[in-house]
Amino acid sequence: MAEQAGAERSGKDRAHDASAIDVDRLTEPQAQAELDRLAAALDAADRAYHQDDAPVMPDAEYDALKRRNAAIEARFPALKRADSPSERVGAAPADGFAKVTHTVRMMSLSNAFDDAEIAEFDTRIRRYLGLDADAPLAYTAEPKIDGLSLSLRYEDGKLVQAATRGDGSVGENVTENARTIDDIPDRLTGAPAIIEVRGEVYMSRADFEALNARQAAAGQKTFANPRNAAAGSLRQLDATITKSRPLRFFAYSWGELSDPLADTQMGAIGRLETLGFQTNPLTERCDGPAQMLAQYRKIEAQRATLGYDIDGVVYKVDDLSYQERLGFRSTTPRWAIAHKFPAELAWTRLEAIDIQVGRTGALSPVARLTPVTVGGVVVSNATLHNEDYIAGRDANGQPIRDGKDIRVGDWVQVYRAGDVIPKLADVDLSKRPEDAVPYAFPTTCPECGSDAIREEGDAVHRCTGGLICPAQAVEKLKHFVSRAAFDIEGLGSKLVEEFYADGWIAEPADIFTLRDRYGSGLQQLKNREGWGEKSANNLFEAIEGKRKIPLQRLLFALGIRHLGEVAAATLARHFGTWEALTTAVDGAAAEPAFAATDAKARKAALPDSPHWAEITGIDGIGDTLAEALVTTMSQEAERASIDRLAAMLEIEAAAAPQTSDSPVAGKTVVFTGSLEKMTRAEAKARAEALGAKVSGSVSAKTDLVVAGPGAGSKAKKAEELGIEMIDEDGWLALIGQA
Ligand code: IVH
What we know:
The protein is built from 29 helices and 24 strands. The protein has 738 residues and is α+β, with helices and mostly antiparallel strands. 2-(butylsulfanyl)adenosine is lined by residues 107-109, 142, 144-145, 149, 165, 200, 252-253, 314, 333, 336, 338.
């Protein structure tokens, strides 16, 4: 922890500066000075965060200062200030506003960056809806406003709640702040009894400049861009501050509705306008990709003169009954896409190439750059992907950047597309230093020295050290405690690194024995800088709280290659329990299909490999994932580590499908033959939404086969096995959609 607080140290006065001294070596006067300094720094940070929404330090640094403060107070209790930062309440940023659970999730948008992706978007939608290439299909096109989204709930025409998006499910209640915005009506006439209007809060460029000028004149923090200014102004605990900030609002979407607004997106936007909302005047109905792209160019041409920031164009399927059929993926609608404007670019020097080792052993080269501002953000790192990318080749050996390789010392062009990690677009060969040499990709792991091997057909070098590689072990642990995995509060990446470095935890199972090993009397944990009895207890309680874990989270947490959240959920749904899953995986490990060395041999061995066939027969689980799963679980050391973990846990069987009252919940359904009223993808999505498992092959475990015209071997097999078979209309009647 002393190291983190040491981030404060500044060059030459390091030796005289108490901030550079470890807590247990501070003299009393130094401790007093340090407590004063920390109180001032934390106070400034709190104010910057809460009142100005312009954080002056990263959260990790803030936390480190708080811990250092607490550690000094623990050593010198008599020096504790009356206004000690450790007693301050409401300092935790997220605690400022009450939480609001959205009745209809607030979605984000998937992104497209070029024209071809828009054509693909149209093709994808037609395929899903079963529309021919020449069938009419209209879209809307409108600017993507660079602000923050807000959901406004009106009941009986009165604004009752305004909430930010938050994580999509839970946002912050900012009702009083929203009431101060002129574009947001307090009352609506002629609106549905319940209506949630959604749109973007933003600040015009002129208002942003003026606000910054006022802030600067008053000696207060200025904002980096209009978006930050809008976010900072809306998220004010004191609504009178929001009132003094010139915020605006464009309506473009909706959440819960007691009555539909219209039949089309365009009609609904018109209705929102009639109700008194501002809608974007550049919203246009388009008959297909050609018109959508024309509207994109038109909006792009006006971008500089609009007076507010936009970062792309959003296309939405116009027909709302199509939108309904298309539905949502986990976080984005299938019926909309954001076509982003090209990224901003800047030239800078490549100072070094570092190699990072990930949890699956992949070696990722990272460019260390002379810091440069790109689109308002200082960039000092960029991804270099892999060996071929640095050498100027793509995965197929074709030249990229006209075949120019990247060398340390080169002038490189950096860009940011959306919020993704910065990338390099180009190299300026005319500025290449004479002594620059081609980059030699390492063939050993920089962390553990094991061989780093690039397998045929793979773009990536992988460390072969497995569990002995400290980088892989730490990354695996970080993944294990991450949000979508075990999500252990208080045990973040930093602490995992420290615990690992100190030898406290080497593998996931060790997390669950921490209390037994270090918790007795809490002495050892309390001895760590910044830790007290309360924080230690909180951590142990958070860990205990996760001993009971849903199967899908455990599967995802294992960090097996290719096994993402979606696949983990699919496997959990199929197998239900950890025992059923391990039985299948262990069975598959001993079967000829797993031993097969190519796809053909694998297929031939399928009839003699029932477990392998079961795993790969699950819709959404391919051979690559099955192989990674079975390989990992059958490696002796890995498996022993997983078993040690499983023994610590109470693994919850996969949750019963949410729609347990649906007639197909929990049933395994196979669709075969052609469907006429819906596409295969749509049928599958609908069945899964109703709690059914959709499988690609018929087996004794199949409950129902939906057979359309042309059904062949699968229908025959179902007949042999005596499985219930219905046609498409029968299926629609069964799920109540006839
Ligand atoms: S529609 C379910 N339309 O972009 C559809 N979003 O990157 C939800 N945004 O969270 C969004 N302008 O905050 C939509 N014209 C527009 C938009 C827009 C800006 C924001 C919105 C969303 C984010 C996704």
